[in-house]
Amino acid sequence: MTGLAGRSLPVLRGAPKPMDIRNFSIVAHIDHGKSTLADRILERTGAITERDMQAQFLDDLDLERERGITIKASAVTVPYTLDNRLYMFNLIDTPGHVDFHYEVAKALQACEGALLLVDATQGVQAQTVANAYAAIEAGLEIVPVINKIDLPSARPDQVAEEMEQVLGIDALSAVHISAKSGLGVDELLRAICLRLPAPRGLAEKPLQALIFDSKYDDYRGVIVYIRVMNGKIVVGQKIRLMGEQQVYQITGLGKFAPRAVSVDSLEAGEVGFLVANIKTLSDVTIGDTVTDANTPASEALPGYRPPKQMVYCDFYPGPDTEYTQLREALEKLRLNDSSFTFEPETSDALGFGFRCGFLGLLHMEIVQERLEREQHVQVVQTAPTVPYEILLNDGTVKMIDSASMLPDLSKVREIREPMIRASIIVPAENIGDISKLCQDRRGIYKKTEYLGPNRVIIEYEMPLAEVIFDFFDRLKTATRGYGTLDYDLIGFRADDLVKMDILVNAQAIDALSLIVHKSKAESRGRAIIRKLKEEIGKHLFEVPLQAAVGSRVIARETISAMRKNVTAKCYGGDVSRKRKLLEKQKAGKKRMKQVGQVEIPQEAFMAVLEPGD
After folding, report:
1. Which residue in 233, 379, 480, 518 has a CA-CA distance of 20 to 30 Å to 48?
2. Model's pTM, two decimal places?
3. Architecture category of domain 388-494 in CATH
4. 87 — phi, psi (to 5°)?
């Protein structure tokens, strides 16, 4: 059993037999060691030398390295020899955070197997369960892997029992490894060869290749990641994208090994990339099927369910950015991240911008940071909101993603908010704290299951709007960092919801308006107004801040005006001289208030995100 250093290129350029190919993903909860295991596999297979090795090798983005998380799934092809038989591994490293579950789903559909990685110190976590079920639903063969067994606090046998109890996976089939030191990795590579199935496609069938990702390159256009399910694809071939019905000619094919390596063809079972002078976003759809233009396949592959954007916010150009610059930056980023959307938006306070949809709060944060770093644009971001279903009096249902889009309330029969099923894994001693936290967020208790004597899964149904703000932070605080959360959208449900407007200087700021539960409107309004008062600086005139539901003001604060002592030069004399100067100043401030503009910094828009208690 040896790695095949130095022979990568000939192997990759030849057409391997399907029975020797192993397509698999590494899936796990965040921080359980996926990227570190990918590094060890690259080393042991000889794909990279020790000199070229760096931690998180497959994480291309600077943000991924800085935060220590995987954001985009990465595909790499490496050869491996076991008992004088040459295998080709197509490995897809996936993210672990709940926001990027869509990336995991894409990766799994391009594979036949999955390595389900669990930390030997932390045990089964919320995303472990979610990813395991996703792999089972996709019909993948699962190899359970217990990582970090060399740590003093490791408890591999108990963790294996947890996996058996929660996921129904045989505890004895788990491979015990330390991805950091390399302990047990050779046994894992053997398990990949012997326990994961070979691809089932046939090279003789008409071409069917699944597009599972894409990347924009300034020189070559769109680089399309594909998994060939059936048939064969060669350089120079004319292909058709079945979803868009566009025809292109292949100018380049290749694999990442892990650096890009050109190949002449890709056959059934192989993973690689194609270049075909594709320049625009609308021409590439993730989940589309590539087929031969002259002898097309009779039907497309199942593809993917489109990702559901569950958090929305507005991006407006910052101080040194033009509207056209922001639009071009968003279009470029959209090429590499198909799971966020944007459309033009206007605001009286902020001008022209874009309404953007994201999978979650971390996804939103990542997109903003990538815009600023990679595209060099500055953005002003409003507070995030969730989508709502509005049932009108005439029986029609309308979807809105901003409180400013809410129709006249006289036409509205009910407002429905998105509900989630939250699975929270916590230490048994924290059950009371978490139950209180969930009930404060209008959660409905469903069930509790014990993973072992000290850990439980608690299930609640909750409004998504109550979770996206600071729920995760509160959960981590209450459990001293040991609590984990995973959630699935289960639908929309009507409740007693109202629109709350925020008025600055008697003018409603549409970017600050939000939909809240009636019972929480007053406390939420007071908290937001207090926060705004801290963030908005003093002006030359008095600035009233108000929170209102309909025509009723439920909270008010006043930012006092900057004062100049106009009577400083009056030494003695009749008091009427001072009064005259003060009256003159008062009249000037009144006139200024009528025409003056209040400057609202970005921090004020984000104040809605952190309303305090």
Report:
1. 233
2. 0.74
3. 2-Layer Sandwich (3.30)
4. -110, 155
In angstroms, the CA 42 to CA 212 distance is 22
Q: In this predicted model, which residue has the larger pLDDT, 150 or 487?
A: 150
What is the distance between the alpha carbons of residues 434 and 443, in angstroms, rounded to a whole number?
A: 11
- Rounded mean pLDDT of 529-540? 81
User: Could you give the angle at the alpha carbon of 237 between the alpha carbons of 233 and 241, nearest 5°?
Assistant: 75
CATH class of the domain defined by 2-195: alpha beta
Give CATH for domain 498-606: 3.30.70.2570
CATH of domain 311-381: 3.30.70.870
3-class SS string, 457-470:
EEEEEEEHHHHCCC
* 96-109 per-position pLDDT tens digit: 555 566 667 777 88
CATH tag, 208-292: 2.40.30.10
Distance in angstroms (rounded) separating the CA atoms of residues 39 and 57: 6
Alpha-carbon distance 381 to 124, whole Å?
36
Distance CA 208, CA 296 (A): 8
If you search the block for the tokens 């490894």, which residue do you land on?
Answer: 177
CA 501 vs CA 198, 476, 606: distances in Å: 59, 32, 15
Whole-number Å distance between alpha carbons of 525 and 521: 6
- For the stretch 464-485, pLDDT in tens is 988 887 788 888 888 888 888 8
Residue 331 neighbours by CB under 8 Å, 6+ apart: 281
Q: What is the pLDDT of residue 59?
A: 43
Do the domains 311-381 and 498-606 sit in the same CATH topology, yes or no? Answer: yes
Q: Name the token pair of 291.
A: 């087929």
pLDDT at 24: 92
How many Cα atoms occupy the beta-carbon half-sphere of 101 within 13 Å?
Answer: 26
Query: In whole angstroms, what is the distance from residue 512 CA to residue 493 CA?
Result: 24
Q: What is the mean pLDDT of the chain?
A: 81
pLDDT of residue 152: 92
How large is the average pLDDT for residues 384-408? 88
CA distance 230 to 209: 7
The verdict on whether omega for the bond into residue 258 sits within 30 degrees of 0, i.e. cis, is yes
Q: Where does the pLDDT of residue 452 fall: very low under 50, low under 70, confident under 90, or very high at 90 and above?
A: confident
Contact 89, 191 (CB under 8 A): no
Per-domain residue ranges of the chain: 2-195, 208-292, 311-381, 388-494, 498-606
Crossing angle, helix 185-195 and helix 34-44, to 10 degrees? 90
